[in-house]
Amino acid sequence: MAETIFAKILRGEIPCHEVYQDEHVLAFLDIGPLSRGHTLVIPKEPAETLDQLSDEAAAAIGRVLPRLCRAVMKATGTKHYNILQNNGAPAHQAVFHVHFHIIPKPSEAEGLGVGWPVGKLEDGAALAREIRESL
């Protein structure tokens, strides 16, 4: 795995504004926030993309993510938010260590803006079968 800023944060070489830490997970404020309270949630296990993460580390994030969302919403007074997680450079991943963004959406102008070019589902039954068989 490539050396990342998150690896340096995990080793204590770069400081962060920590909001949560346990055996498997670290959460801290984003230094380039899209809105007040923008928080990053990372596994301590090194993995570039979510599919490379162990079930144990993924479950640890899943257990704490809702609690962190509630805390960010309470602290910021914001009722709406986005959870963003990108995998690979073409999917807009910039730091190659799994991470989730909790991005408060206090107004239309603040927070994450998203374009959603809707496509058409083709061969849905065959594709669903292929995915099931890949599990």
The helix-strand sequence is HEEEHEEH
Q: CATH first level: which class?
A: Alpha Beta
Residues in helix, %? 25-40%
Question: What is the H level of CATH, i.e. the homologous superfamily?
Answer: HIT-like
Average the pLDDT over all residues and give the rounded result: 95
Terminal residue distance: 25 Å
CATH architecture: 2-Layer Sandwich
Biggest beta sheet summary: 5 strands, antiparallel
Strand content range: 15-25%
Q: How many domains, in number, for the residues?
A: 1
Tertiary shape: globular
**Unreliable sequence segments:** none
Examine the coordinates and then state which fold CATH places here, giving the name of the CATH topology: HIT family, subunit A
List the strand order in the largest sheet.
Answer: 1-2-3-5-4
Structural class: alpha+beta
Q: Got a strand count? A: 5
Question: Please, how many helices?
Answer: 3
Radius of gyration, CA atoms, in whole angstroms:
17 Å
